[in-house]
Design a protein that fits this description.
By secondary structure, the chain is mainly α. The protein has 15 helices and no strands. Helix 2 packs antiparallel against helix 14 and helix 8 runs antiparallel to helix 15.
């Protein structure tokens, strides 16, 4: 019982933060559209977050490893989220939106990665499945997408700030009760970061997943606009996200039963194949309800892909660099991929429409999956022994 009680604040943090985050992913593009921005301009604003995350996530990850605390870094970021978010959501012109988005995302983007890193560490310490903890983020995302979608149908997309700050405030409150994790090694030094740069399997893997994660982030940014292009409403967008993230929650919740049966790369390849199939199906849809019905594949794609990739990266990086390594991975998964997905997706959906966007996404996911199969067959695809504590370079 003590074990369960110690995880309640962490599960509530995941629930509330991802509940807030669903509003950014599902409804922020619609708010920007309401403010008069074009698809290309929306892409520019959405690309700010991934761009900033490339610096913000490794920075906050390094600070977490250096001072051996995830809890205090999370609290700082959540305070920054509330202050900057209350200003960002009020902006109406493109230059101000871009500038304030930079400040807002500097604090916001590391929170999910830090909470996942803390969840992975707590799961390892308690000898339980990471997925059983992480599923609470999916539950929060699914619940919020459904309820906020219905709420915005009533009050209007222009009032998105109210439910967002409510969930962000709840996340800050529960963060005070988190159980931190101490690593029984010396604090990280700057020279230790060379261990990540020289970790060839880690670096190659990050490059290869880009082709798949770019398509995932493009979908995050534009599925709402795609549904409205097909004649759907904000409520239907919320329902689509609910179906998708509910399936994701199921995948995470039962990860302990299926995940250890095969090498993580096998699951990554399977999820990549399903990504390609999913996008090709979306490319030929002309009714928004079909998007909702096919959203169950979100769990079979993102749920499996993210869990397997996160676990694989954990095996590749040393314990003293866990937060840094995790946040570098997240910076690639959601950062670099988000920049390309937002800018490229915005241009494509403006000029060619949503169906063409999803066709090209299917082609990219297919190529990415083939490359990961090649990686798995080569020696680089075999995990090393770098998950032990870093051996210091005495020569500096």
């Amino acid at each position: 019982m003590a074990k369960d009680n110690s995880l309640v604040p962490l599960k509530m943090l995941l629930f509330s933060f991802h509940g807030a985050n669903t509003m950014l992913i599902s409804f922020l593009p619609l708010l920007l559209q309401y403010k008069g921005l074009s698809g290309k301009e929306i892409g520019w604003v959405l690309a700010v977050g991934p761009t900033v995350s490339i610096v913000a996530q490794p920075f906050w990850g390094y600070m977490s490893d250096k001072y051996q605390t995830v809890k205090r870094i999370l609290m700082m970021c959540l305070i920054g989220l509330l202050i900057s978010g209350s200003i960002f959501f009020q902006m109406t012109t493109l230059p101000l939106l871009i500038v304030l988005a930079g400040v807002f995302y500097f604090f916001t983007t590391p929170i999910g990665a830090l909470s996942d890193s803390l969840s992975q560490r707590r799961a390892d310490a308690l000898n339980i499945s990471f997925g059983t903890i992480r599923t609470w983020g999916s539950i929060g995302f699914a619940t919020s997408s459904l309820l906020v979608g219905k709420l915005l149908d009533v009050i209007g997309i222009q009032y998105l700030i109210a439910p967002y700050l409510f969930m962000g405030g709840l996340a800050l409150l529960v963060s005070f009760k988190l159980t931190d994790v101490k690593v029984d090694v010396d604090p990280i030094q700057l020279r230790d970061l060379r261990k990540l740069v020289k970790n060839s399997p880690f670096i190659i893997f990050l490059f290869l997943v880009l082709l798949i994660t770019i398509t995932h982030r493009a979908n995050d940014s534009f599925i709402g606009i795609f549904i409205t292009q097909l004649g759907g409403s904000e409520g239907l967008i919320g329902l689509a996200w609910f179906v998708g993230v509910a399936s994701e929650a199921m995948v995470f919740a039962f990860a302990g039963f299926w995940f250890r049966k095969f090498h993580p790369l096998i699951f990554i390849i399977g999820a990549g194949t399903l990504y390609a199939i999913r996008w090709f199906l979306y490319a030929f849809i002309d009714n928004p309800m079909f998007v909702v019905l096919l959203q169950f594949m979100h769990g079979l794609t993102f749920g499996i892909f993210y869990l397997a990739a996160f676990q694989y990266v954990t095996r590749l990086i040393p314990r003293v660099l866990q937060s840094t390594g995790h946040l570098v991975f997240i910076a690639v998964f959601f950062g670099i991929s988000g920049i390309v997905g937002s800018l490229g997706g915005g241009a494509l959906i403006d000029t060619m429409g949503g169906n063409s966007l999803y066709f090209y996404m299917g082609c990219m996911a297919l190529v990415g999956t083939i490359l990961i199969i090649v990686y798995h067959l080569l020696p680089y695809g075999k995990e090393g022994k770098s998950n032990s504590p870093v051996e210091r370079d005495e020569n500096g």
